[in-house]
Amino acid sequence: MARASKAGATPALSSTRVPKQKGQSPEQAAQSFGVGCLTRHLFICLGPDCTDLEDGERTWLYLKGRMKELNITGRDGPCYRTKCQCLRICTGGPICVVYPEGTWYRNVTPENAERIIQEHLIGGRVVEDLCFARNPLPAT
């Protein structure tokens, strides 16, 4: 499967971004997203090194929509999700990590993303067969 170059990001990636409220302070923006009330944060790498950009974007759109549908994200829920282009594990992607547990997952397809949502984000149990590393944050 051919991979897109880093310099040649597809237009579909930029068309999914939602503009932020102009004039908001960082404090206001953080409050509107539920920062301070979050219990888990999922970061997902969209590629292009660990996976094809289209596959990464497909998984991101699934995660974003499903977490919103389940009302578990941002201000309305205990979880947050962030997409990025590199988590420095450039194989076996899409790659994601869930904090504070610091659980690293491989092959995060939409189907596996659903398992991570149900079992880890909602159920609090690591999806062992997808987990390849752990680095929990220290308790405060």
List keywords for this structure.
16% strand, 140 residues, 4 helices
Number of helices: 4
Largest sheet: 5 strands, mixed
> Radius of gyration over alpha carbons?
15 Å
Q: Output the helix-strand order.
A: HHEHEEEHE
- Structural class, by secondary structure, is alpha+beta
Shape: globular
What's the total number of strands? 5
Main-sheet strand order equals 2-1-3-4-5
What's the short version?
The protein has helices spanning about 10-15, 25-30, 55-70, 110-120, and strands at about 40-45, 80-85, 95-100, 105, 130-135. With about 140 residues, the protein is α+β, with helices and mostly antiparallel strands.
Task: Please provide a written account of the structure.
The chain has 140 residues and is α+β, with helices and mostly antiparallel strands. It has helices at 11-15, 26-32, 53-69, 110-122; strands spanning 40-45, 79-84, 96-99, 103-105, 131-134. Strands 2-1-3-4-5 form a five-stranded mixed beta sheet, covered by helices on one side. Mean pLDDT is 85; it is low at 1-19.
Describe the SSE topology.
Elements: H1 11-15, H2 26-32, E1 40-45, H3 53-69, E2 79-84, E3 96-99, E4 103-105, H4 110-122, E5 131-134
Parallel strand pairs: 1-2
Antiparallel strand pairs: 1-3, 3-4, 4-5
